Amino acid sequence: MTLFLQRLFDAFDNGAIYAAMALALALIYKSTGHLNFAQGEMAMFSAFIAYVLSSEQGLPTWLAIIIAMALSFVFGAVVERVLIRPLERRNPLSVVIVTLGLFLVVGGAAQRIWLGTPKEFDTPFPDSAKAIRISDAALRTRTIWFWAVLLAIVGLLFLMLKRTRIGLAFRAVASNRESAQLVGIGVGRTLMIGWGLAAALGAFAGSLRAASTPTFDTNLMLPVLVYSFAAVTLGGFDSLGGAVLGGLLVAVFETMVSGYVEQIGGQLAQATALVMIILVLLVRPSGLFGTRKIERV
Amino acid sequence: MKPILTLEQGSPQYRVAQLIGWAAFAALAIWLPFGASETDVGLFSDAMAFAVAVMGLNLVTGLSGQVSLGHSAFMGTGAFTTAILVADHNWSFFATVPVAALLCFAIGVVVGVPALRLKGLYLALATLGLSIIFPKVVEKYDFTGGTNGKRLGRKRLVPPAWTHLDRQDDRHIWIYFIILSITVVLFVVARNLFRSRPGRALIALRDNPIGAEVSGVNLAHYKVVAFGLSSAYAGIAGSLLMFRSDIASGSSYSLNRSIALITGLVLGGLATIVGPVIGGLIVVWLPKLIEDRIHGDDPREKSWSTIVYGASLIAIMFAYPGGIAGLIHTIRIRLVQIRPRIPTRRGSADDDIEFETVTAG
Which of A37, A29, A36, A32 is nearest to A237 (CA)? Predict the structure, then answer.
């Protein structure tokens, strides 16, 4: 029982990171119908920026993360405007190809700058090393902080979507882009904000990931990307809440399977993401909360 | 601008021009292993193997508009199949190729069935998982050589005596011709597939899925078979790489390799026959050309090839989505105009029959 509980708590740690990344992916999917394959590499780059600001420039870690998130917001918005929008009208395949190109450029640039010695990144939260003991299983303070901040961000995001004009515009664009344009909503600007928010969320996920591993390098987000794709598939691509829950469930599934099935172990843990994706596609392609697509001819 | 030459399709002049083109191409391909250095011949052999993998990707991306990020894993499966069967079970190199193809076809179908019955990017998602776990799987088990990779040991592809190429110095020429012949056969098969009934069905699916399905095209069935074939091509490509290499390692079949194949295909030209040939050359030569320009041995400098790959992928989507094959086509129609054959009807019975076959074809 203790072991089970311990594994569950460990899963919560990764779950927060997967949830944040999945939320970023779902945000873009909901508004544009595209998946950004470069999301992970962009998040990795942002984590390195936070690292440079805190470790090399001496800023407090939390401030470094916030600045990295702000810079990522700008980068995400620029990517939408410069790379995605001109191609969007052509076909979905070109957008996929461009995000793959971006994957290579951002990943390659990070390797060019930071390849070599693994970097250390401090956690921004106080008392992170401490843990609460629940029937001998340790729930780390870090994990509680991760979820507290993540849920605060999710709460803010929902407030923004439901209570502000920008949020209303975002929902209108997501629901029907043409009609939104006809009633005078700045579709382009809204999409830029969506991509920017996604990139900022990615930066948050990247920083958490960097803080939760002893050292990190440019491969930081590649595994996370697969898990978060599994998470959005499970949550239903266009459901933001589903993405968060999906992230948590995927992390639990990963930790339990690699913990209890010896053949999988730590090395093949990522196979659980693939299995999860295929299971969801077989059983319930629209995910837990996704809207089913009905097409009229 | 007026074209320099106007040819009517099917006319004797057209045939002659076509023949000259193919003869020049064949002459170049046959001259190359004797004229170029051993290293370069080896790289061209690799480029042909990669061209097969890119053609495989073309069957799924070009024909059905779906992206596969798992072709590195299929290539890897092919390479490891050959390495294991040759090193541990004393198979001949050639006998391993169909095994690699069948194995990859089967894996392709297993992944394709759940992912392809749905519209959208599901294939990309499932195959992304495949390419990320592939290196981990082969590094975990002993029969795949663990983290060191699978070595062929002393087993090599040796040219038979009648070729007079069995000296160590000439082995690369034999391997070149073997890979060339297999590549040519696979390209002819792919070309016919593009023009066959299933090929046209797939193109219809890509361009208007609902319309195609209403016209009686079994959407999922065709897509799954196309993806299986596409995976088999990648498997054969991996197998062919082992004709020359003496080690298969998981790290060379990572996600980046899959994206490199996509880059090759898009730069070469999607949904064309020439595109994958150019793509194979790009996948092999582009990193080489960039690395040649790198001074010093800072490992970080190697990432320039990744950056250039990505940047050219983005640039071509903006500047020339048809790829290099599309560019060549545009230049060619400026220079040489090819008129489609206009069927004539002169009243004789023979002509009538010919007219009918032309329209039917």
Answer: A29
Residues 116-135 of A with CB under 8 A from B: 116
Taking an 8 Å cut-off on Cβ atoms, the answer to whether A274 and B129 are in contact is yes
Q: Which amino acid is at A175?
A: S
Nearest C-alpha neighbor of B73 from the set B240, B235, B245: B235
Q: What is the pLDDT of residue B9?
A: 77
Token pair in block for residue B296: 């010093």
Which residues from chain A sit within 8 angstroms of residue B294, using beta carbons? none
| pLDDT value of position A293 | 64
The DSSP bridge partners found for residue A132 are A139
Q: pLDDT digits over A43-62, tens only?
A: 999 999 999 999 888 899 99
A297 interaction partners in chain B (CB closer than 8 Å): 210-211, 214
Average pLDDT over residues B59-64: 85
CA dihedral B128, B131, B132, B135 (to 10 degrees): 180
Half-sphere exposure of B4 (CA within 13 A, CB side): 4
Q: Give which of B183, B245, B182 is closest to B43, Cα–Cα.
A: B245
What is the 8-class DSSP label of residue B68? -
Q: Which residues pair with A138 in a beta bridge?
A: A133
* pLDDT beyond 80 at B130: yes
* B:259-298 residues touching chain A, CB 8 A cutoff: 259, 262-263, 266
d(CA A185, CA A151): 29
If one compares B194 and B279, the residue with the highest pLDDT of the two is B279
What letter would DSSP give residue A52?
I
pTM score, whole prediction: 0.89
Is the Cβ–Cβ distance between B267 and B312 less than 8 Å?
yes
**Low-confidence stretches of chain A (pLDDT beneath 50):** 297
Kindly tell me the sign of the dihedral angle through the C-alpha atoms of B324, B326, B327, B333. positive
* B313/A229 touch (CB, cutoff 8 Å), yes or no: no
Mean pLDDT of the region B241-260: 90
Q: Roughly what angle, to the nearest 10 degrees, separates helices B171-195 and B219-244?
A: 170
Compare B103 and A175 and report the one with higher pLDDT. Answer: B103
- Among residues A296, A92, A89, A85, which one has the least CA distance to residue B65? A92
Tell me the CA distances in angstroms from A232 to A207, A250, B67, B311, one per residue in order: 20, 10, 18, 28
Instruction: Look at the alpha carbons of A211, A212, A214, A218 in this order and tell me if their dihedral is positive or negative.
Output: negative
What is d(CA B151, CA A41) in angstroms, rounded to the nearest whole number?
A: 33
**For residue B355, is pLDDT > 80?**
no
Q: Residue B182, SS3?
A: helix
Interatomic CA distance for residues B170 and A175, integer angstroms: 65
Q: Please, are residues B317 and B264 in contact by the beta-carbon 8 Å criterion?
A: no
Q: How far apart are CA A62 and CA A45, in angstroms?
A: 17
Work out the mean pLDDT of chain B and round it to a whole number.
Answer: 85
Question: What's the confidence (pLDDT) of residue B166?
Answer: 66
What ipTM is given for this predicted complex?
0.88
Residues 6 or more apart whose CB falls under 8 angstroms from that of B126 comprise A274, A277, A278, A281, B70, B111, B114, B115
Name, in order, each residue with C-beta under 8 angstroms of A146's C-beta and a sequence gap of 6 or more: A12, A13, A16, A17, A208, A212
Give the DSSP letter string of A238-288. T-HHHHHHHHHHHHHHHHHHHHH-TTTTTTTTTHHHHHHHHHHHHH-TTTT
SS3 B139: helix
